Amino acid sequence: MCRQGKWVVINFFRGFWCPVCCIAMLSMEKQCEEILKYATIMAISPEVEDSAMRQFNFSFDVLTDPDNVVGKQFGLVYPLTKNIEGGYAQLGFDLRSLNKVKGTNPIEFPLPGVYVASPPDGEITYCFVNEDFKQRAPLEKVAVHLAERLAQQPPQP
């Protein structure tokens, strides 16, 4: 996207099974009109696409990152401990199935994070990552950041 001259907002989230992630994604949808004035939005999760993911019909792309390949490139991925995996299982979340984790491989998630990448080379100009998955990027700051950065750019011929 950046090579096509577009700014990109990249939002990493754990999956639609996570209530906090759902709230954050719905919040992004409510506020995306302002961000979409300046950039393309891509939300990325290791969760394999299913009907729950499609039911939301977001105004931006929601992408699956099998095996957290992209999340690992950003340094966001961490493995769940067996105790935490068991706790989620007791709550009815089969994370191995949702993320198509093979065999005894660990279940891994990206830390929730938002990045802004500028054209043409994808330089990261904004980053919000927090180990506490309940803490999310203030989207109004993302919109302000984009507006300020674009105002600093010389006009395109």
Description:
- With 157 residues, the protein is α/β, with parallel strands linked by helices.
- The chain contains six helices and seven strands.
- Strands 3-2-1-6-7 form a five-stranded mixed sheet, with helices on one face. Strands 4-5 form a two-stranded antiparallel ribbon.
- Strand 1 (7-12), helix 1 (19-36) and strand 2 form a beta-alpha-beta unit.
- Helix 1 (19-36) packs parallel to helix 6.
- The chain is elongated and about 55 Å long.
- The model has no long low-confidence stretch (mean pLDDT 86).
Question: Would you spell out the secondary-structure blueprint of this structure?
Answer:
Elements: E1 7-12, H1 19-36, E2 39-45, H2 51-54, E3 61-64, H3 69-73, E4 77-79, H4 82-90, H5 95-98, E5 108-110, E6 113-118, E7 123-129, H6 139-152
Parallel strand pairs: 1-2, 2-3
Antiparallel strand pairs: 1-6, 4-5, 6-7
Helix pairs in contact: 1-6
Name the beta content range. Answer: 15-25%
| Amount of helix | 25-40%
Outline, from the CA principal axes?
A: elongated
Q: Averaging pLDDT over every residue, what do you get? A: 86
List the secondary-structure elements in sequence, H or E. Answer: EHEHEHEHHEEEH
How would you characterize the largest beta sheet? 5 strands, mixed
SSE class = alpha/beta
Low-confidence stretches: none
How many strands appear in the DSSP assignment? Answer: 7
N-to-C CA distance: 20 Å
Q: Strands across the major sheet, in which order?
A: 3-2-1-6-7
Specify the number of helices. Answer: 6
| Rg (C-alpha, Å) | 16 Å
